[in-house]
Fold:
Amino acid sequence: MSEHDPTPAPSTESPPAADPARERLLAEVAALPGLPGVYRYFDADDKVLYVGKANNLKRRVSSYFQKNHGGTRIGHMVGKIARMETTVVRSEAEALLLENNLIKALNPKYNILFRDDKSYPYLQITAHDYPRMAYYRGAVDRRHRYFGPFPNAWAVKESMQLLQKVFRLRTCEDTVFANRTRPCLLHQIKRCTAPCVRLISEEDYARDVRSAERFLLGEQQELIDALQAQMMAHADALEFEKAAEVRNQIGALNRVLHQQAVETTGSDRDADVLAVRVQGGRACVNLAMVRGGRHLGDRPYFPTHVEEGTAVGAAGLEELQFRADPEVQVLEAFIAQHYLDSSVPPVLILSHPVDKGLIDALSQHSGVRVSALQQPREQGRAWLEMAVKGAEIALARLLAEEGSQQSRTRALVDALGLEPEDRDAFRIECFDISHTAGEATQASCVVFHHHRMQPSEYRRYNIEGVTPGDDYAAMRQVLTRRYSKLAEAARAGEARLPELVLVDGGRGQVSMAREVFEELGLDLSLIVGVEKGEGRKVGLEELVFADGRDKVYLGRDSAALMLVAQIRDEAHRFAITGMRARRASVRTGGSRLEEIPGVGPKRRARLLQRFGGARGVAEASVEDLASVDGISKDLAEQIYRALH
Structure:
């Protein structure tokens, strides 16, 4: 793409040149430096529209305002731009880092966005005289050894099972290990060498640990050669039982490698395989992880704002035409956003070519020399074909599910005789009450629109000041709190009420909802109760209306009932989990202790009792934590890291 005249001409979508705000914006564009940096566009409500980076800010930003974009998405965005902000940086790597941090923080409408996922799990080998093999998720430290990351928990557990079969390393907690007086069942089924009762020497166990680590690092052939030499040494020393044990290890290792059917050499031992597919306005990036030469599995990622992001992202491109391809833009967005917070392997095997500058910037940011392969050979090609097929299947499944959800939305709208302005934006809010014998009562509100549940909009309400177990009073309180301010904002045109309000219950709950809506001056036809059918059987639910209409039975196989049941069950699940968390908080002082692996109810109770509550635990030092009965030094450090 050729360079443009630095002096921009107003676009056809722009307001007239006489508009002072527009003239000021264009003057800012003209004054931009030809340096690398990041730019942000904002609308009249000061909401961020788009975040981008450029090697040359003047050339890139000017290109948005010098073209006639017509009625495209780019044109709509450019017409909304009220102001912009720019930040000059020293290099493309800094621009990459800043751009994607801003995208994650600001969630712009016209950027392709990959949601932050949970941290990846690792296989941990602890620092101990007899190291333990464990599943681990969280921040890593230098004291223990970590292998991974793995795409999911199943991949970690499968690897642990393989290592148990071949090297028979222990998996028990240190407190269990320290107090055993006889071997456990794992030793009896030949999955552990029972170091807890010293049935194996520390030296022999350490050798098994080193062998397991070499296996995880992909040194399979070197490991087999070393084991064969070890077996022959035992045989020469007439230690035939030990030689037989090593022979069994070699046999088990060969069987595992045969089952894996993976052969790699060189830098391909650690690689990520990335395949992208775009269809129907949705996209999927399938990430397959290869560690130590073993294919650990894959995980699909589905970005949002695909249509907007690919259209606008192509508008300001100045270097390479092929990057206008939506697949390439999605893949580049994934690489930039994903590897800013995750470790990057030395090799990326890609289904589409990406900008070399992106890979160079990623290498500079991570400190790892990263190479990108678009046409791998042999095993790499097989991995890429698997990843491409996985992306196609995952995207097809997503589109099918979304199509099914759309049909369910249509069915419910038709069954209730509703006429929403926009069926795609049809909004449902559902409420449920949960408690245990009146204790820790909580109400949940879940939200459905655009044919899917919207977890980011869910809300929980602690119910106070009502008789324990009075679900009607609890429903009155949550509806009043939810809609009193919303009703005022809706009348002022500053908010939007849902087209349907579901309450989990029959006539009693509907009557309570009716009273609240009458007090607030809201439309009673919005309220629908989901009443259990005969015998409380699933599929026999009936809908109860607040405006006096007769009950409606949708039918066991009705798509409309399936949607109602889905939303009702989600509200129930959300209420139950919130109530249990609150109940635990009330009973134990509550804290993030519950989320720490290895801290069960007994240890949590000891910690809370010793330090007088959750705040005291958080303020305790590692030494103080380790002084509690049942808390080892390693676990104390883990607790301390989790709470700070």
Q: What stands out?
A: The two ends are 50 Å apart (CA to CA). The chain has a mean pLDDT of 81.
